[in-house]
Amino acid sequence: MFHMGWFLSYTVQNWRDPWNGNGSDLWIEPELYIEAAKALERAGFDYMMFEDGSFIPDAFRGSMEYALSNASIAPKHDPLTLIAPIARETERIGLIATVTTSFYPPFLAARLASTLDTLSGGRFGINLVTAHNDRTAQNFGLEQHHEHDLRYEMADEWVRAATALWDGWERDALTLDEANGVFASADKVHYANFEGTYYRTRGPLNLPPSPQLRPVLCQAGGSQAGMTFGARHADTIIAQAGDVPTMKKFRETVRELAQEAGRDPDSVKILFLASFVLEDSDRAAQEKDAQMRAASEANIEANLAMLSFSSGIDFGKFDLDAPVPEIETNAARATTAHHLRNSEGRTLREIVSTRSTGAFNFVGSVPTVADQMSEVAAEVGGDGFLVQAPIIPRTVHRIADGLAPELRRRGLIRADYDYHTLRENLLAF
Amino acid sequence: MFHMGWFLSTGFGVYDWKGPWSGNIRADIGNPELFLETAAALERAGFDYMMLEDSSVLPDIYQGSYAHSLKNAVVRYDPLPLVSLIARHTEHIGVIATMATSFYPPFLAARLMSSLDHLTHGRVGVNLVTASPHAAAQNYGLDEHIEHDLRYAMADEWMQVVSRLWESWEPDALGTDENRTVYVDHTRVHPIHYEGRFHRSRGPLNTLPGPQRRPVVCQAGGSPAGRELAAEHADTIVSAVVGVEAMRAYREDISARMVAHGRDPHDVKVLFLVDPILAESNAEAQAIAQRRREAAASDVEGALAGMSYVSGLDFSQFDLDAPFPEVLSRTNGHQSTVADYQKAGEDKTLREVALTRSVKDSIPLVGTPASVADQMAEAMEYAGGDGFLIASAVTRRNVSAIADGLAPELRRRDLIRSSYDYGTFRENLLSF
């Protein structure tokens, strides 16, 4: 058995997709995500994970034009505002939203997360990112962003501060003794008194403990510092690897790091980003995939923009037909490295003409893709997949109502949620 | 005509924990249902808004411990998620959530509010507080809180950055291009390059401009620094002054300050806090008021804990029956409220002040809906204010008494709105 999740953003959902409905503004309304959540809950998904970002990319050609005119990466709204409405209309699926440790004060985040965990009945998680772009740092008042490894050191301390706050109320602190008028017991509530190099917080939180006490922690960085951080703190890790050997190696490394950090490696569920081309027949799917690949490869502009986004470097200024220059980035290191892998001796045009989303691409009819997923999961050793696709109803239904039933019939994914909280369901197998 | 709002005095908290009409209160802890029902009832009644107060502190000044707070359910969930839920449950009423300018990074706040302005279809507001307790500052990593007037100077700058971020997209930046060539016209989106003494932000915001573009701004400070902040930035002000003379003086003071800032005094609505006691006869209402005074008189501890929280001074350290101590010079807390205590204590003991203080009633409103409606009309006539904020405990009984008893009486006299004429909160607020 493996776990399933969906990776999404609170943004325009592929504006130019012919099946996106009235996509220019429908993406703002919670209905779109609520409907998707219901479908994915029906399909037995563990969680939906909202990534996030706080800047408009302008590295590419030194302008916001590409991002804004194409609705790419921007606009992006705060996904934390969607969690309560989705939670209210679902019962079991987990809901994870991104919080930037570099700029969110730990007390503010711990309190909001605890509130959302209560409102969702214990189904909330936060995805911890350090943010990678100088523009984000500048929006929050810095000249430029902290150095890459330093921000992971800060993130590590941030988690410890937030955890000290979450641990401040014992599970049975609420006495609710109505006869004597005693709401909670003072000897079961404790100051955090956290004193770190970067963060300090006294505590306690001013709200009762939430069902999970500590919300689920999710993490996605693939750099050495990111993996170490994830292995130490995360309940679930999002990984990008385009092929089985890389997936396998990633999982082994994280599990070793978790063991070194004194954790049971089985308590960290690693979900690999996956994309799907599902059609009625294998042949139709392959044709569709070839079409999509050709369209993507022809769209050099989009690929240059994406590379500029992840690296923070303007790839519009390099000669397309010269070898790719040496890149040193303080931004998203692992993602940039992934895009530029095997770049030696190749021109920039060759590199950006090869589609690479970082997701493992499954192509075929429903039974074929189920076979492929089963094989990949067996080879890699678990733990599951995260669908990376815009929330377009037609796409959601292909996965939730086409693929998921097949996976369920084969006993590859859950038929039922055995628990109420996200963490318990995540650790159930 | 005047405006009505409801002031939720402990935000997304627990109300009237030991009260006789608080229902199955266990089931209401951390449960949005009570607040959704309240929002629907107030919308039916034609209220302009509900305002969710907030704080990041488990009060522990009184007796140097949070035991009293825990015993009495002084807890608060983060009110911001509640805004998204109320938005889906209602169509017209405004929803104001509190943010502490001293600790909320401006970009984070501007983006969150802009996102909520979309989700509410233009009905969100932000209540600016600077937060007063040292304990709040310590939760956010400071040794102690920033000095009172300095934090208002910071709040002023915070509001400037946030306003600039909201304005960083021109209203028509989002194209209506049917051919899907351009989603947003990037020439209509601008960095703000804000460089202040306390805050900096490059911008632009990465959200689409909301229906109001600039959410409604609410403020509640009674000190001169607080009034300045309100006069410069606010669309609505919560006032805790007591008595019609003080109400009138407050409204005049705000108007004068607004003129000095180049604003039209009509562009802010000053709402005064009240806690009406309604019953079927005036005598019955008076009897309820009397029982409440007696209950309050038996709870000196509750009064002292409240005063300790507001002032940041542990009132358990003073002799209850000695003359009221000198406290004003020792507080960094709510200046105007502590000044009120000091003034009330001029020839009284601490016990006397604790038992008579009333911080949430601008005027006592006791009687039948008809007589209370008369009292409200009269007070507004004299004070020149813009309306009232109900600060009663959020219990279903209180909400129903106001929404289904008092409001219809006010509506029949054309004292409050009978419908919402506009789509957005600010338009409705400024419509009279």
UniProtKB/TrEMBL annotation, chain A:
Query: What is a single molecular function from GO for this protein?
Result: monooxygenase activity
InterPro entries attached to this UniProt entry: Diverse_substr_monoxygenases, Luciferase-like_dom, Luciferase-like_sf, NTA_MOA
* Cross-referenced Pfam families: Bac_luciferase
Domain of life, per UniProt, equals: Bacteria
Q: Which residues form a coiled coil?
A: none
Record's keyword terms, sorted: Flavoprotein, FMN, Monooxygenase, Oxidoreductase
Q: Tell me where in this chain the Luciferase-like domain is found.
A: 5-382
Q: Per the similarity annotation, which family is this? A: Belongs to the NtaA/SnaA/DszA monooxygenase family.
Protein name (Swiss-Prot/TrEMBL): FMN-dependent oxidoreductase, nitrilotriacetate monooxygenase family
Look up and give the organism this protein is from.
Rhodococcus rhodochrous J3
Give the lineage. Bacteria, Bacillati, Actinomycetota, Actinomycetes, Mycobacteriales
UniProtKB/TrEMBL annotation, chain B:
Span of the signal peptide: none
Task: Decide whether keyword Transmembrane helix is in the record.
Answer: no
What are the protein's GO molecular function terms?
A: monooxygenase activity
Q: Which UniProt keywords apply?
A: Flavoprotein, FMN, Monooxygenase, Oxidoreductase
Q: Where is the Luciferase-like domain?
A: 8-386
Q: Which Gene3D superfamilies match?
A: Luciferase-like domain (3.20.20.30)
Q: Which family does it belong to?
A: Belongs to the NtaA/SnaA/DszA monooxygenase family.
PANTHER family annotated for this entry? ALKANESULFONATE MONOOXYGENASE-RELATED, C2H2 FINGER DOMAIN TRANSCRIPTION FACTOR (EUROFUNG)-RELATED
| Protein name per the record | FMN-dependent oxidoreductase, nitrilotriacetate monooxygenase family
